[in-house]
Amino acid sequence: MVVSSDAFEPKGLLNSDDNYMLQQADVVQLLKYVWGGVLLPSTESEYRSRLQISNDVFTKLSDVIKPLVQAYAVTKEHCKVFKDTTYPGIINIASDVYNYAQNAGGSSQDSYYGKLWFLSLPYIFQCIRKLDHVTSEEEKARLIKTINELVDMQVKNIDKICTKSQAVVADLRTFHDNTRKDQSILQERSTAVHNKLKAEVGSLDDLETKLQNYRIELNNDMAEYEYDKTVACTTPAYAWLGLIGMISAAAVAGVYGDKAVKMAARIDEVRKLISDYEQKFEDETRVVGDLRAIDKHVDNILSLVEPAIQTVEKMVGIWQAIANDLKNLKDMVDTDIRQATALVADIVEAKVLEKWNALKEKVDKYRQAAYVSDADSISLDDLSKQLHEQAGN
């Protein structure tokens, strides 16, 4: 039975950015694209209102728009389940982690949290050290009983975190499977709309290609800012940018100077492109742009769910390792007190306190930033105006 002296520290629960491990780009980006699904039109009336298309064009496309919107409604419900149930479940786990870190690390005995000291890992270590000095079998039995009860309490709390995390993994896998099915249906319905448009007005492939290139360029422009917001644990804010897709409104708000000039110019290019096409095919241009933006969002959701699952599973593995180390320590106390006291003799309690309290602070930052307000919508014109103002021109 081998237990290292640093086994009781929260190794791996902080990521390379020194944040709680779930505060990472994959998880944050997943929520952004899910919001794109939540905002999908689920009725024909909502679809017309969203794209502001004429009665004439809507009538021409009605036989393909109706099944498309029906597919959107299903995808929307799946995304709402993620937003309303799965994502809050992830945040709820963070609250359990916060509570565990606060109790495991404890605080100095004269602090406000001094009453929680007996729940801390350092207190367990102190009890084990006392075993080396007691002579009374009755006192030794009492200490062993206390140690076992405290370790059992720690393990029970860890099991609670793992159980909730495994439930989140199951929900994420269900969401992934549903989204994959949605993608297949949406591709079929999207192709039907595309073919109908082509039959009505000819090929719009050039428009689609150029819009997709702009989406890629804008995403690349925003990547650095979104990463900085994630690392800083800034509460994200999302907005649907017509014909382009979901953007991080909080990240856009942080763009100034030359970079704002560059981004404004990019948006103005998109506006001109759309304006040029709308002179010939106003409604059809909106249909195509919206269609491909949604297709891309579903692709992005699928690409991000699996990394999110892997992150949560990794977290479960870390907690299970901590629980196993505690169980091994408990067994050691029951079978070989000298080995147990030798192990804890090498543990620096101040370091354990520091590590768990650092995790507590990072998890609290994560919780505070995790509650996202409802996503909004923004037009290309309004975004252009905002960026020009931030650029100072």
From TrEMBL:
Query: Does the UniProt entry include the keyword Coiled coil?
Result: yes
Q: Which SUPFAM superfamilies match?
A: Bacterial hemolysins
CDD domains per record: ClyA_Cry6Aa-like (cd22656)
* Positions in coiled-coil regions: 197-224, 260-287
Judging by the UniProt lineage, the source's domain of life is Eukaryota
**What is the name attached to this protein's record?**
Pesticidal crystal protein cry6Aa
Q: Which GO terms describe its cellular component?
A: membrane
Which Pfam families does this chain map to?
Answer: Bacillus_HBL
State the species of origin. Answer: Schizophyllum commune (strain H4-8 / FGSC 9210)
Name the keywords, alphabetized: Coiled coil
